[in-house]
Structure formats: structure tokens, C-alpha cells
Amino acid sequence: MDQFASAPGGIEELLSRLLERQRAAFMAAPRPTARERAEHLQRLETAVKKNQDAIANALGTDFGNRARPETVLAEILPTIAACGFARKHLAGWMRPQRRAVGLNFKPAVNRVEYTPKGVVGVVAPWNYPIYLTLGPLVDILAAGNRCMIKPSELTPATSALLAKLLGDIFPPEQVAVVQGDVAVGRAFCALKFDHLLYTGSTHVGREVMRAAAENLVPVTLELGGKSPVIVAEDYDVGKAAKSVAVGKFFNAGQTCVSPDYALVTGGRAEKFAHSVLAAAEAMYPKLDGNPDYTAVISDRHHARLTGLVAEAEAAGATILRHRDKPTGNTRHFPPTVVLNPPLDGKLMQDEIFGPILPVVRTENLDAALDFVNTRPRPLALYAYTNDSATERKILDQTISGGVTVNSTMLHVAQDDMPFGGIGPSGIGAYHGHEGFLEFSHTRSLHKPRFFTAIEILKPPYATRMRLALKMLAGFELK
Ligand code: NAD
Questions:
Q1: What is the pTM (predicted TM-score) of this model?
Q2: CA distance 240 to 229
Q3: Which of 2-11, 54-63, 213-222, 367-376 has the lowest mean pLDDT?
């Protein structure tokens, strides 16, 4: 539902008024205490717990089929965990820090204080529409801010539920949900927020950053990209394949940190590819009516995935398809492995964001590292090795937002670690303490005691300056 479709004042005016209302409320109470923030987080946690069924049902409606355990594992539990973690550590994170005072400035006090920024905007995608709205909201509230959220138009049932759930527990001048399409998204990103967090594609991320730059609004960009898997020669390919298949087909590959493609060294690529498909067939023996296998979000995305495989097949790649051909829910895309994909085709150029795994044969580890390093810096990297020197080499010779070793995606689920990309896969990070810092302003406070050095160093400079510089810094002014 587009709540602005028939608004008389136009989207821009309505959004500006909402922002002004939140900012006025913020300025009236700009320093929520730790106790108040903890209470806000408790309210959110309780609402998510109470609405588990409603959340799972809304996601089921939006996806056609969203595996319920995936909703619990990747939306409900991490949101609840983030609330609990922030509540526990909040008071410690908020505590001002004393900093050293240089000899020349003594006696004085130096302190940094973590102050709320004000009103933070959140723009979210459709793939995890609860965790990618409420996860940021946890950090934003923990840092004492107010928040306006623009969820994706591709998940209308979940967006409407979010608006209701948050509207029931927060007044609109504290947390507000703005539903609407890309036009609403554009107007939203042009607002003079105190900070803007955008999660979505790298392509749109550029547009969002341009809009924010117009008002010098600081941004956190959580973007996408192609996250590689490197299977080193010492690691059992069958074991790696089973592990990669779990990550790849979770949410039907519609995960920002999904393993996008695999680099298999030592000529074991073929065995790896067949083992990934076998693992998929074991996890999802049939596709039609299988509640465990999540559907693709829209017909457009389904057609896009079909096109990626067709292009690779036409270029001579070997396509390994799941034995079951879905006929019921037409948006179930079969798990597919593509061996020896053309490197200049769309499959290896664009982020896949679906249940297709290209497997690229590489000569050795150095060739795999070159492959990764000659492409845009990825959001995640997955290294399969039991050899500590090989692990160190992969870590030292690659750059990515995060890493999981001998598994996939799990680094994102750690409450006490930052989550974010680097360069084209993202700017800034959130989750846990880093999330609190991202949405706080680190303010420096200097308070001289008894006298101020600068007051001695005032004009007329000649004699006084010479004397003071000699005394304080041992510096001879010429
Ligand atoms: P998208 O960029 O199309 O849309 C995301 C949001 O931006 C939606 O709410 C949409 O309405 C809004 N939007 C679209 N165009 C806009 C514009 N020009 N100006 C302002 N807002 C606009 O992304 P998507 O298809 O919903 O999500 C998929 C992408 O998101 C993938 O690339 C994936 O990797 C990435 N992603 C990243 C993370 C992360 O945390 N790094 C998490 C999930 C998804």
C-alpha cells in the first residue's frame, strides 16, 4: 500500500513534515537515558516475540513461500538477540571516556561523549524485510535517536505489518514507517536526515549516496556484490560442497552474503559441483509444495535467473539442475549448479541473488586469490581450509567486508562483531557496539582548569610567545 498515493501535499512535503516532527521531539528530549533506551528496546523485543506468527504469515504472503524456519532463524531470533545484547551493554557503551591531556594543555580535562545524532532514516530491501529494518532500528534506538523507516515495495504485507507493529509501540515522532515505491524512496533519500542507512543494491546505493551528498547527510551503505568461496586443496571437496549448499540455498540464495560463486583448486571442480547438487537434492528432495524451499520474490527475478542460466548454457557451460521440475508454485527456482561458466557473461558479472552456484576451476590458490582481487571488493568471503598457513594467506591476500572460515554467512549472526562491506559492497558498519558508534556522534570536550594556554599566547606575541614556546615546547622562535 502506498500511503502517499493520494496525499494532497505531495510526497516531499509529507515526508518533510514527518521529519520536522521527529526532529522537534528529539530536540525537546535530546538525551534519552540508558534506562529509557533499554525500555524502548524491551518494547521492540516483546512486540517481535508476540508477533512471530503474524511475521511468518506476512512473509509467506510476500514470497509465495518463505520457509518458516528461515524466518525464525534469520529474522526473528537475530532481532531478539540484537535487542538483548544492546540492552545488556548499552550503559557501558554510553559511558563517556576520559582521554589524555597533552603536557602543553595541562591542567585540563579531555573527554569524549557519545551523543545521539537525531533522526536517522532507514531504507530496506525485500530479502529479509524484518531483520534489515528492525536490526538497524535496535542500534539506532540504542544510540538514543529517532527513526523513519522506508521498507521495500516488494514485500507489501510485511511492510504493512511493520507499520502496525511499530505504530502500536512507538509514537510517530519516535519511530515511523513510510510505505511506498521507488518514487517514495527517492523523496525519502533527499531528506535532511542526521544519518541515512541504506541496504540494497550497489547500483541504487550510488544514487542514494548522491542524494545524501546534496545535504551532506552521513551514510551507512549496506550493499551487495559477488561473495566468493575458495576451496583450498587440503579441504575435502564433498564436505565443502555440503556446507556451501546450506548457505547457497538458504532463502533460495536471496541473501546479500550468500556464497555467489565457488573457486575450486586442484582440478576438483567437477566433483565439487556434483556434490553441491547432491546436497541440494538431499535437503530438498522435491520442490513442488516443499515448505522448506523458499520461492523467488517476483516473476521478474524468476525470469532474470532463468536468463542467467540460459546465457551460460548457450556459451557452453555445464548445467546441473535439480531432478525435480517445479510446476505448482511457479516462483520456485530449482537449485542449479553451473560448471565452467563464461567469465564475461552476466552470471559471473552480476550478483546472482538466487539459487544458482557457478563453479570456476582454478589452477591453484594463487590463481584463486588473483581471481578475487581483480574483481570488486566483496561483502563476504568464504575460505575452506584446515591448514593454518593457507588460512592466513587467504586472509592476508584478500579484502572483503567479512569472512567465515569453513562455513558460510555465520559471521553476520555474531552480535559482538560489526557487519558491513568495503568499497562497492558497502560503506560503514553496524551491529552491536559498532552499530551504537555508527549512529552516535563522538563529541570531544576539552575543559581547561585554572588557566588556558591560549590566553598566555595572545598578542602582542613577540616576548610572551618566545618565552612560552621555550618553556612549553623547548622551541626557539627566530
Ligand atoms: P534495491 O536497491 O532495489 O531496493 C532497496 C530499497 O531501496 C527499497 O526499499 C527500494 O524501494 C529503495 N529504492 C529503490 N530505488 C531507489 C532510489 N533510486 N532511491 C531511493 N530508494 C530506492 O535492492 P533490493 O533489490 O530490494 O535488494 C537486493 C540487493 O540488496 C542485493 O544487491 C543485496 O546484496 C543487497 N543487500 C545487501 C545487504 C547488506 O546488508 N549488505 C542485505 C540485504 C540485501
A1: 0.95
A2: 10
A3: 2-11
Q: Is any ligand 1 atom within 6 A of the Cβ of residue 247?
A: no
Residue 353 Cβ < 6 Å to ligand 1: yes
User: Are the folds of 10-223+429-441 and 228-416 the same?
Assistant: no
Banded pLDDT at 10 (limits 50, 70, 90): confident
Q: Among candidates 359, 289, 288, which has minimal Cα distance to 320? A: 359
* Coil, strand or helix at 399: coil
Catalytic center residues: 222, 256
Do the beta carbons of residue 199 and residue 124 sit within 8 Å?
Answer: yes
Q: Is there an atom of ligand 1 within 6 Å of 75 CB?
A: no
The amino acid at 199: T
Calpha distance 338→318 (Å, rounded): 6
Which CATH number among 3.10.300.10, 3.40.605.10, 3.30.70.3270, 2.30.30.240 corresponds to the domain 10-223+429-441? 3.40.605.10
- Enter the C-alpha cell of residue 38: 533499554
* Cα–Cα distance measured from residue 231 to residue 228, given in angstroms and rounded to the nearest whole number: 10
Q: Where are the domains of the chain?
A: 10-223+429-441, 228-416
pLDDT digits (tens, 9 = 90+) for 250-270: 999 999 999 999 999 988 999
pLDDT at 1: 41
Instruction: State the pLDDT confidence band at 151, using cuts at 50, 70 and 90.
Output: very high
Q: Whose C-alpha lies nearest to ligand 1, atom 1?
A: 200
Q: Which residue has the cell 538458504?
A: 250
CA-closest residue to ligand 1 atom 34: 224
Picking from 6, 23, 83, the residue whose alpha carbon sits closest to that of residue 49 is 83
Beta strands in 306-401 (DSSP E): 318-321, 336-339, 356-362, 380-384
Using one digit for the tens of pLDDT, what is the confidence trace for 292-340?
999 999 999 999 999 999 999 999 999 999 999 888 667 999 999 999 9
Q: Domain 228-416 carries which CATH code?
A: 3.40.309.10
Enumerate the β-bridge partners of residue 336: 321, 356
Distance (Å, rounded) from C-alpha 126 to C-alpha 296? 11
- Is any ligand 1 atom within 6 A of the Cβ of residue 370? no
Distances (CA, A) of 178 to 3, 147, 222, 252, 379: 8, 11, 20, 28, 28
Answer whether residue 455 shows pLDDT above 80.
no
Q: Which of 133-142, 330-339, 366-375 has the least mean pLDDT? A: 330-339
Kindly give the distance from the C-alpha atom of residue 353 to the centroid of ligand 1, in angstroms, as a whole number: 12
